[in-house]
Amino acid sequence: MKISMTYLTDVMKRLLDTPSPVGYYEKMKPVIEDIASDLGYEVTYDNRDTAYITVAGRDTSKTVCLSAHADTLGFMVRGINKDGTLRIRALGGINHANVEGENVTVHTRGGKTYTGMLVCEHHSAHAFDDAKTMVRDDNTVFVLLDEFVKDADGVRALGIRHGDYISIEPRFTLTDNGFIKCRFIDNKAAMACSFAVLKAMAENGVKPKYNTVFAFSFYEEIGFGGIVVPNDISEYVAIDIAILGPDSDGSEQAVTICAKDASMPYDYSLTNRLIAAAERSGCDYAVDLFYRYGSDAGQAIKGGNNVRAAAFGMGVYSSHGVERAHLDGIENTARLMLAYALEG
Q1: pTM over cut 0.85
Q2: Annotated catalytic residue: which of 169, 220, 221, 235?
Q3: Helix, strand or coil, per DSSP, at residue 96
Q4: Is residue 102 annotated as a catalytic residue, yes or no?
Q5: Which end of the chain has the lower number of beta carbons within 10 A, N or C?
């Protein structure tokens, strides 16, 4: 059974083009529902708007979860400056120096959108002596609106208020030899893998081994996307990016199984079964420990849920920036998802 990479790539691009900074699910939920409906699946939600697609298994005595978070890094409006620029607060682990100059969209609570760009307070070396050395953070990086506004009253007249969400342009690029460069490969690539696996099972009329829940949370980037887990789930596997760094055995072409994150080792027997599934299905894979990293699977444990937890994903360079991955690594991730779903 093969994964359609054409379908996966098309879905990933659609998901990337749908803004979903932490907690902002209004635009993503209809997209998830539409993609699922096209494949013949229904979507349900909990009270935290985590989306679930449940597929009945050949053996219904057990329920497992494959989770790919739907939220991304972003900002929220925290104030309006006298000159009409917007003060911001980061949502998730933003590197402000990395986003300077990036295009953004402000999403008002009233349903309007306005574009702008992220600029440093001392934005030009021609005008400011410390333009190159000023620390970039929530206090020095502002949103410059693409509107003819000169003061705070002009901004308020547009309907922009404190608490409005700000999404960052993903800037998707796919090279001829399969490299993907954009923001939010973390974690739109894993979401696309989920739908590609669902498509493969639906088109081949195949059921997973056990009842399998595909979950999409909206709070992973701030550390509690998987903290609440439905009671019937006994295994929780997070599909997320794999970090490439000094100690990494993984690569952009491989799927990496996480043995330990920043705070805990993942379940021994479940991790071993994922390694066996990767070998059985012929995946290019590695096993690594991820420093300064967490996942919804780890949060599921911290939330006191009675589950075994594990995590794996595609190798990604420059995490939380303009990231780079390769279609081979994404395909290996989807293949391991499928192998786990079909054989446990």
Answers
A1: yes
A2: 220
A3: helix
A4: no
A5: N
